[in-house]
Design brief:
CATH architecture: Roll
Distance between the termini: 34 Å
CATH class: Alpha Beta
Number of strands: 6
Largest sheet: 6 strands, mixed
Shape: globular
Helix content: 25-40%
Strand content: over 45%
CATH topology: Nuclear Transport Factor 2, Chain: A
Strand order of the largest sheet: 2-1-6-5-4-3
Length: 119
Protein backbone atom coordinates (compact mmCIF):
# COMPACT_ATOMS: atom_id res chain seq x y z
CA UNK A 1 0.00 0.00 0.00
CA UNK A 2 1.32 3.42 -0.91
CA UNK A 3 1.83 6.13 1.71
CA UNK A 4 -0.85 8.26 0.04
CA UNK A 5 -3.33 5.38 0.17
CA UNK A 6 -2.57 4.92 3.87
CA UNK A 7 -3.13 8.63 4.55
CA UNK A 8 -6.39 8.62 2.59
CA UNK A 9 -7.62 5.56 4.49
CA UNK A 10 -6.91 7.27 7.81
CA UNK A 11 -8.58 10.51 6.70
CA UNK A 12 -11.63 8.68 5.37
CA UNK A 13 -11.90 6.63 8.57
CA UNK A 14 -11.97 9.79 10.70
CA UNK A 15 -14.48 11.42 8.35
CA UNK A 16 -16.75 8.38 8.56
CA UNK A 17 -16.72 8.64 12.35
CA UNK A 18 -17.71 12.31 12.17
CA UNK A 19 -14.25 13.42 13.35
CA UNK A 20 -14.10 16.01 10.60
CA UNK A 21 -12.60 18.88 12.59
CA UNK A 22 -9.97 16.57 14.08
CA UNK A 23 -9.12 15.25 10.61
CA UNK A 24 -8.76 18.82 9.39
CA UNK A 25 -6.06 19.43 12.00
CA UNK A 26 -4.29 16.13 11.31
CA UNK A 27 -4.22 16.01 7.51
CA UNK A 28 -4.43 19.54 6.08
CA UNK A 29 -1.64 22.10 5.75
CA UNK A 30 -2.17 25.51 7.34
CA UNK A 31 -2.59 27.32 4.01
CA UNK A 32 -4.79 24.69 2.34
CA UNK A 33 -7.27 26.09 -0.19
CA UNK A 34 -10.86 24.82 0.01
CA UNK A 35 -13.23 25.35 -2.92
CA UNK A 36 -16.94 24.60 -3.17
CA UNK A 37 -17.33 24.09 -6.90
CA UNK A 38 -21.12 24.51 -7.02
CA UNK A 39 -21.14 28.09 -5.75
CA UNK A 40 -17.50 29.10 -6.19
CA UNK A 41 -17.06 29.74 -2.49
CA UNK A 42 -13.58 29.26 -1.13
CA UNK A 43 -11.49 29.51 1.99
CA UNK A 44 -7.74 29.99 1.96
CA UNK A 45 -6.60 28.38 5.18
CA UNK A 46 -7.19 25.48 7.51
CA UNK A 47 -8.29 27.95 10.20
CA UNK A 48 -10.88 29.53 7.88
CA UNK A 49 -12.22 26.07 7.00
CA UNK A 50 -12.34 25.10 10.68
CA UNK A 51 -14.36 28.24 11.46
CA UNK A 52 -16.67 27.59 8.48
CA UNK A 53 -17.31 23.98 9.47
CA UNK A 54 -17.72 24.81 13.17
CA UNK A 55 -20.35 27.40 12.30
CA UNK A 56 -22.14 24.91 10.03
CA UNK A 57 -22.06 22.09 12.58
CA UNK A 58 -23.46 24.42 15.24
CA UNK A 59 -26.64 24.77 13.12
CA UNK A 60 -27.28 21.01 13.13
CA UNK A 61 -29.30 18.97 15.59
CA UNK A 62 -27.25 15.94 14.67
CA UNK A 63 -24.65 14.29 12.50
CA UNK A 64 -26.19 10.86 11.88
CA UNK A 65 -23.40 9.29 9.88
CA UNK A 66 -21.36 9.24 6.72
CA UNK A 67 -21.10 6.53 4.10
CA UNK A 68 -17.99 6.21 1.96
CA UNK A 69 -19.00 4.86 -1.46
CA UNK A 70 -15.66 4.91 -3.23
CA UNK A 71 -12.17 6.33 -3.13
CA UNK A 72 -9.23 6.54 -5.49
CA UNK A 73 -5.57 7.48 -5.38
CA UNK A 74 -3.59 9.02 -8.24
CA UNK A 75 -0.40 11.04 -8.51
CA UNK A 76 -0.63 13.30 -5.44
CA UNK A 77 -4.43 13.40 -5.77
CA UNK A 78 -7.21 11.46 -4.05
CA UNK A 79 -10.99 11.27 -4.49
CA UNK A 80 -13.55 10.22 -1.90
CA UNK A 81 -17.27 9.88 -2.65
CA UNK A 82 -19.52 10.35 0.39
CA UNK A 83 -23.11 10.55 1.54
CA UNK A 84 -23.49 12.62 4.73
CA UNK A 85 -26.67 12.13 6.76
CA UNK A 86 -27.48 15.00 9.13
CA UNK A 87 -30.42 16.54 10.94
CA UNK A 88 -30.89 20.27 10.36
CA UNK A 89 -31.63 22.71 13.17
CA UNK A 90 -35.36 22.57 12.39
CA UNK A 91 -35.35 18.77 12.67
CA UNK A 92 -35.55 18.09 8.94
CA UNK A 93 -33.27 15.48 7.37
CA UNK A 94 -30.32 16.78 5.37
CA UNK A 95 -28.47 14.48 3.00
CA UNK A 96 -25.37 15.52 1.07
CA UNK A 97 -23.84 13.49 -1.71
CA UNK A 98 -20.36 14.80 -2.19
CA UNK A 99 -17.09 14.04 -3.94
CA UNK A 100 -13.97 15.42 -2.29
CA UNK A 101 -10.94 15.88 -4.54
CA UNK A 102 -7.74 16.47 -2.62
CA UNK A 103 -4.26 17.43 -3.80
CA UNK A 104 -1.44 16.37 -1.49
CA UNK A 105 2.14 17.52 -0.88
CA UNK A 106 4.53 16.18 1.73
CA UNK A 107 1.83 14.10 3.42
CA UNK A 108 -0.67 16.96 3.82
CA UNK A 109 -3.69 18.13 1.82
CA UNK A 110 -2.85 21.43 0.10
CA UNK A 111 -6.09 21.82 -1.88
CA UNK A 112 -9.57 20.35 -1.52
CA UNK A 113 -12.51 20.77 -3.88
CA UNK A 114 -16.07 19.81 -2.95
CA UNK A 115 -18.39 18.58 -5.68
CA UNK A 116 -21.85 18.46 -4.08
CA UNK A 117 -24.93 16.78 -5.52
CA UNK A 118 -27.28 16.98 -2.54
CA UNK A 119 -30.56 15.13 -2.68
Amino acid sequence: MSELQRLLNELDEMTGKGEILQALEAFYCENCVFTEVADGGSRDSRLAQHEHLSAFFSTLQGFNGATLHSSAVGDDVTHSEWTFDMTAGDGSPTVWNEVLVRRWRDGKVVEEKFYNASA
